[in-house]
Every structure is written in C-alpha cells, then in structure tokens.
Amino acid sequence: MQNEAVCPIPQRISLNHHIYRTGNVPDSLRHLILDISRAAKYIHYAIRNTEAGLAGTRNQFGEEQEKLDVLSDDIIRQHLCESRVVASYVSEEQSEAVELDPTAPYTVVFDPLDGSSLVDVNFAIGSIFGIYKGMHVIGSTPGDQVAALYVLYGPRTLLVYSVGNSVHEFILNEVGEFILLREFLGVADIAKNYSPGNLRAVNVNAGYRSLMDVWMKEEMTLRYSGCMVADVHHILSKGQGIFTNIGGGKYPLGKLRLVIECGPFAYLMEQAGGAASDGTQSILKKKIDSLDQRSPLIIGSKTEVKRVCKMLK
Ligand code: AHM
Ligand code: MG
User: Does domain 193-312 have CATH number 3.40.190.80?
Assistant: First the structure.
C-alpha cells in the first residue's frame, strides 16, 4: 500500500487516480483505459482541426466512411498497439477482428466515431469502447465485459467509464487531462425524457406507434440528437430517461450493433442502476454470434424499459 502521508488525495482527481482508488482492477486494465483515453484526446483534437468530409471509401457495412471515422480508427489502433495489453480488437471500421498479441490479456471492441454523419452539422459525436478478457468475443455475452467507456465530443469533451464499480464522469481540461466531474452516476426507475430511434419502424410495428402516443400523451420530453453516445449520455447525466432503437423498415433488427454499440452501453446502464433489453432478454445476457450482429435496444430507466418491452411484445 502506498504511503498516503506522502501521496495525499489530490484536489483534482485524474482518471488514473480514480481508477486505482475506486476501481480495484489490475494495473493492466487501468493502463488500457488510460491508453484509450489518450487516443480520445487525439480524436478530440482531430475533430476540431480536420476538415469534415468523406474519405471516399466504404466500411464493412457498405456505409461511406467519413475522413474522421478513418482517422479515429487509426488513432485508436495505434494506441491499442502501444498499450501492449491487447490481444485483439474489433472496430466498426474493420470487417474482422484484428489480432495484436494472443498472449495479451484483453480484447477491445469499439465504434471509433459514433454519429459521424453529424460532424458537418456540428452536433455532438462520440467514441464507444467495451473491454473483454481474452482474445475472442464470439460466444461470449456483453455481460462478460470487464469495463466499458465512452467519450462524448460536444461543447465539452467528457469521458464516462465503469470497471464494474458504478459509473464515473470526467471532463477534459485545458491541459489535456481527464478530471473527475461526477462519480457514482445513478439512473432512477421512472423516465421523464424519451429518445426514440429508428422511428421508421412505427410503420410496421403498431406497438412502437402506440408507445409514441403514450409518451406524447404523458407529456414526456423528447430528447433525440441522432448520436447514441449523446442520447444515452443524456440519460446517465440527467439520471433518468429512455432510449430505443427498435427493428423495422430499413433496419429489421434495429440499426445498432450488439458488440460495439449495445453491449458497452448496456454494461454502463446496468452499472448505473438502469436496464438494457432487446425486448425479450437483457442485452448483457445475449450471446454474441457474429461481430456485425444487430440488436433492438431499449435502454434507460428500469420501469420504463419494462413497460416498453411489454408494449412491443
Ligand atoms: P453510426 O455508427 O453509423 O454513426 O450509426 C449509429 C447511430 C447512432 O448513434 C444513432 O442512435 C443512430 O445511428 C441514429 O439512427 P437514425 O438516424 O436512424 O435515428
Ligand atoms: Mg455507431
């Protein structure tokens, strides 16, 4: 144990300090999260200094890649390589898992820049990360994650992480350090805000349409930006709310990917006392069959998640 008289608790709690004081995790995991946070600082810089525009290439799902998508993917890859603790990684921008070192302890799954089509209009965007032990995620469930975090690049850049001991929020300060803003974020059971994704599904899903009517009748507040990181952060930050991305129309299983989008957020939401379901089962219990698997997502305040699942049945 370190000498506390010589190393007192600092006035500003850094991410590093917070993980080792609160997290109770192996140093290798702490280092990995710090390396990811370093990558995020470069992405933060790139967003502010790169001309928005298309890279002219397509990702594994046939979607046009933004310049910043490609750049963010490169930045993260470089930092994962440097960390020396990553066995393999899965990125939205790569069609297959990328092996780095089979003897290393962790696999990182990530969406390097979620909501990147919003860059041009200067809306908030984010990066999402989930961390598993070992080198394969196929066959596991998101409940096997040992940590999850996201970074929200908005008017301020925020990092929110969990290593299985609640959820904690940091802000990037002017000297480039993530400093503790709020710890032990909690999500209440009752939602007052709603964030309905893939709304085109109301044309084929009468339950989803009725749900919208209920939310409007109950005069709940609509909060939807089109960036999942920003929209789910809204719930964690306000301490209540519901976010949905239901199957139907263009996206029969919903737009979001189980591994890189639903899984990390489900882990964080449950750590904050909320819930995450695909309509029939907890996202954390859902078996990963493929890296590009899509899943409906109902996430946020527990009572509302239950009500939505019931209405959509
Ligand atoms: P992306 O990973 O290509 O950016 O897409 C995911 C995003 C989510 O952030 C967001 O919730 C969803 O797409 C929005 O979809 P829609 O415009 O259909 O509501
Ligand atoms: Mg995404």
Answer: yes
